[in-house]
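Curious: why this fold?
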Amino acid sequence: MSTEAKPVAALAAKGGSFLIESRTPEEVFTPEDLSEEQLQMAAAVAQFARDEVLPRTADIEAKKAGAVPGLLRKAAELGFTAMDIPEEYGGLGLDKTTSSLVTEHISIQASFSTAYGAHVGIGTLPLVWYGTEEQKKRYLPRLASAELIGAYALSEATSGSDAMNIRARATLAADGASYTLNGEKMWITNGGTAGLYTVFAKIDGEKFSAFLVERDTPGLTVGAEEHKMGIRGSSTCALVLQDCKIPAANLLGEAGKGHHIAFNVLNMGRLKLGVACIGGARLAISHMVRYAKERKAFGKSIAEFGLVQRKIAASATRMYAAESMTYRTLGMIDASLAQLGDESGRSSRDVQKRIEEYAVECSILKVYDSEMISLVVDELVATMGGYGFVEEYPAERFYRDARINRIFEGTNEINRMIITGWLMKRAMAGELPLLKAIKALMDEVMQPPSFDEGEGSDEKLAREGEILAAVKKIALFAAGVASQRYMAGLQDQQEIMADLADIIAQVYALESALLRARKLASAGKGAASPAAAMTGLLADESMGLAEQAARRVLAASAEGDELRTQLAILRRLARFVPEDTVKLSRTIAQHCIRAERYPLSLV
């Protein structure tokens, strides 16, 4: 497989800067910027998923012996498991955009997607980034070929989201030659099929560290398969470590620095999870549209009914926003990594720091994309009615499978804390001029309101641009009010932190959608593209969600006359001219119905 596919250059904007800066369409990467080589690769992956993975769904879901490992090895023969592994260790060393394209288009069967994602992501990246030369040479070629399947063992029964509170212990032998591990790990994806586990434990109960443990290591016991609500075909097991002795050379990274491995790998894991949700949602929308066209009621296709069209349009619009944000983020990451030179000249630590720069964007994608696919599969079941509720049709499986995405890679609740907390932390450290922007906005809103509507704007999607500017101001205003009220104690106000995170996510979603729509329009594709209609629908939705969340923040941060003044300011900020969303929904749905799928699909 060619390794030459490189994304169009994008601006390596500072992480989180979307909240306080404006971008132009030319500065962001969109799916339409993918190269011909990248599109060819995506098509090859999509064909593999259609021809090899989907036909084996029954075997996968029944956990037929060898079904998933066999498919992983077939994927490996085509290079699909080697994207993020450097060439010198048997990989392809591709950019993050291209490797994410593979993840997106292979992710149409959730159980297999889960196994694949765990293997190529959290099962492999710890070694790529933190392994010694000897560790990389020993394991990475076998992971690239799927001879070994990788797994990541962090969670425990008493420490899921609270990862630093693990109880597993590691004890260094007196001669320094080996470690002995004791403890139990829970919810390990690929647990029953993996040959190599990245296991987290505390040396002497204190130093949080990571270790490489092979499956046949004495003292390691793999528990029984969990019987799950969804992703039933993926392996999920507990691991029991009882006097499990491994060479000291199997320590991954530095002793006591395992949290760097855990959290840096999860940033990429969150992004790739978002990408996988896009792949699954794309297929679900196709099923929705095709069923709606075929199903007859009251003498006509149900695709002609307005409320069915609203379901299709809502699904496509959320998909459009998710896709726009995701590839924008990938473009920034690749642009930042490109500044380090080619792969041979990059240190692993530099790569991690460049990706960590976009931690807030990765958490936004994890939350938004996982909730997007939940909406899409719910609308699929609703569109199919009774047929959507029985196992004979795939909608029932889609519905069950989608729920795990809001739990994987840190729950959506934890990621909402990360979004707001990360931004405020960077602001307090002076790494992002967020406090300055909040102060400027607070000074502005305390001035008497001006009702001068101005001359208007001839910029494409001007109304949507005005709404975006207003939602940014709402985000800053709500953050300013909450910060003034709670100061350093804001981090303990989880409900407020979550509401702020949702407003911030709406900013990133709407801006990404708007920039992409403007880019398409500038390329002469505006009239033929549903992007403008989807951006219009998203704008009205974003304003509604932002205003509602801001009201909750204000009500929790003030009372009496102060609250009434703040609510008056919010009403001023949230004033906008609504679009005819009924017309927009019908327009979007018609694009989907004609295409019989999500209408901006390039493969």
About this structure: Confidence is low (pLDDT under 50) at residues 1-7.
